[in-house]
Amino acid sequence: MRTCTPWKRSIGLGMVVGLGALAVAAPAQAETGPTAVNAGDTAWLLASSALVLLMTPALALFYGGMVRTKNVLGTIMQSFFIIGLVSVQWALVGYSLAFAPDIGHFVGGLQWVGLTGVGGEPNADYAATVPHQAFMVFQMMFAVITPALITGGCAERMRFSAFVWFTILWCTLVYDPIAHWVWGMGGWLHDMGALDFAGGTVVHINSGFAALAAAIVMGRRLGYPSEPILPHNLTLTVLGAGVLWFGWFGFNAGSALTSGALAASAFTATHLAAATATVSWCLAEYLGRGKASVLGAASGAVAGLVAITPASGYVGPMAAILIGGGVGFVCYWAVSLKHSFGYDDSLDAFGVHGVGGTFGALATGVFASKAINAAGGNGLLYGNAGQLVTQAIGVVATAVYSFVVTVIILKIVDATVGLRVTEDDEITGLDLSQHGEVGYNL
Amino acid sequence: MKKVEAIIKPFKLDEVKESLSGIGIQGLTVTEVKGFGRQKGHTELYRGAEYVVDFLPKVKLEIMVKDDAVASVVAAIEKAAKTGRIGDGKIFVLPVEEVVRIRTGERGDQAL
To answer: Which residue in chain A is spatially nearest to B43 when comparing CA positions?
Structure first.
């Protein structure tokens, strides 16, 4: 049984679990084979794709507010520009490497390069009720936001040209293979039964460990940690967190690939985890430092969304609350680790996405239930301890591969283009030195 | 002629201005500044990490006055800017050699 794939969970699930209206609507789809496009599913998936797209500019605001005034545009650009760059990479080669017919359980083939054959007919392996192109464009938005998340680990010091080369190489050599492992037909984690509903492993653990590698390889910002380097506009950050939350409904509920009970369940779990983590991060702060901060509330919301991502289609609302409650404390503790270890994960991309993603992947192995999603699996709480082991294998494999290959790519880019801006340019700021403009002319 | 320079808490600016208007002062210059004195800075918390911010925002006023008005101007500022808590600021009085009103070319006390 292909337990790991939400894409495989055809609308037939509606019948399996006997879910009212869906069950009534579903038989026609399930029985007429893979070529039947369902209007509702397609509408929801295209709307979800647009929601996920919006997460990347939202991330630009989330990160942009946390840097200093002189780097606000440079930081925003590292997210916004990626929408252009990675979308093109995805259409040319990325989608094929991630999802085309398997080569050695490691990467997709080149059959779909340039989107050859990716058209209006559904692909039954991934999403039987929507045009193949809708599935491709939905996946494109995930490929876009993942490298953007990494930029939080090495903010305020990366040369723009180095960033462009790094992003192209990283998507091709890291994101596309890992997406194939977990979601592609024949991918080895996919076949092993690892559960990742919407990208906890592929997006968050992957980008989190890459961000850690980037923070270590690139070194600390000038002045860190002896001088205070403070966020310049947390109002932007909170707005960014809010729009991320909004877009995340497309990310998680859209990953049902159908418009029915499973999407509603994932939507509910997503919201409850984010809500609980908002409160729990603030509570951790209040207990630890005596004040609940607004940055803490925004960070908690994002941590909750990260943690519920792999679990969203496999767990119920109460499990979502437990996951959100736990991750607020875990990530609050994790972001303080950087001060002990001395690396400069500037905007806590590792602390939130790497640690939160790992927590979520393991929690999925605890709380997953076939009562929520028959195509999923049972976790530890439902008598299947093996699922937790499978989840841990997925975490370790992704973390190690991502970290090692990211370090190699960074070293190559450093030797050719040069990773860091010059000291003078770093003092001037990325806005003026890299882009010839400033964020604020007040 | 003297220059009275006062560093005060920003939220006291309006009260000080009203108080100075009340004793006939017709012009003053205000600058937003940062600095520290005995009040020191304050602590900010970002994601659990504490940062000491040394320089606090203050407002600096500069007022040019005739010698005989110095005492009343200083008293007016002192009274209006005082909260009794640390960080109320300071007042400096400096000699001024010359004042020119650019529009008319007047000099000295006439230009004030």
So the answer is: A228
User: Worst-scoring range by mean pLDDT, A226-230, B72-76, B77-81?
Assistant: A226-230
User: Which of B46, B51, B55 has the highest number of chain A CBs within 10 A, making it the mutation to test binding with A?
Assistant: B46
Contacts of A11 (CB under 8 A, 6+ apart): A22, A26, A29, A30, A38, A41, A128, A129, A258, A260
Are B48 and A348 an interchain contact pair (Cβ–Cβ within 8 Å)? no
| pLDDT tens digits, A298-330 | 999 999 999 999 999 999 999 999 999 999 999
Tokens of A206: 């992957």
Using alpha carbons, select from B20, B18, B36 the residue that is nearest to residue B69.
Answer: B20
Question: What was the ipTM of the complex prediction?
Answer: 0.70
What CA–CA distance (Å, rounded) separates A310 from A330? Answer: 17
Residues of chain A contacting residue B53, judged by C-beta atoms under 8 Å apart: 228, 230
8 A C-beta contact, residue A171 and residue A89: yes
Rounded Cα gap, residues A182 and A180, in angstroms? 5
Q: Chain B 17-76, CB below 8 Å of chain A: which residues?
A: 44-53
- Could you give the C-alpha distances from A349 to A1, A93, A150, A153, A221, in angstroms and in order? 34, 27, 6, 5, 15
